[in-house]
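for the recovery benchmark. tokens below, seq after
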């Protein structure tokens, strides 16, 4: 249990990318939605400077860069993204990531499919 934690969230991030197991998905691409939250224990009683927090602009840049890298599986994406976030932001003690494929290539399917991953460090 993390007492005195701060959580930074990025919600409903939209990307067009080419993740997918099937050849057609790698050619046509798809729309994805990513949600991310990272939690850390602040080093200050009151945070007044960005250096004492997790910069959400840099988090977004990291997610955007990773979305450009093809993965066959969404599970691979969330697990590798979690490791990259922790490598870049070692203060992160817990994170949750979800990714939804908004138009999965399933005949007569309405809705979206997704993967959610959480990890504590």
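predicted aa per position
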């Amino acid at each position: 249990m993390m007492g005195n934690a701060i959580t930074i969230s990025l919600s409903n991030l939209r990307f067009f990318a080419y993740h997918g197991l099937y050849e057609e998905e790698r050619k046509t691409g798809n729309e994805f939605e990513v949600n991310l939250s990272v939690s850390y224990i602040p080093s200050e009683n009151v945070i007044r400077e960005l250096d004492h927090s997790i910069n959400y602009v840099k988090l977004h840049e990291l997610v955007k860069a990773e979305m450009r890298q093809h993965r066959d599986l969404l599970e691979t994406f969330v697990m590798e993204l979690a490791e990259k976030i922790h490598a870049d932001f070692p203060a992160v003690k817990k994170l949750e990531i979800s990714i939804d494929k908004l138009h999965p290539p399933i005949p007569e399917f309405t809705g979206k499919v997704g993967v959610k991953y959480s990890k504590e460090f």
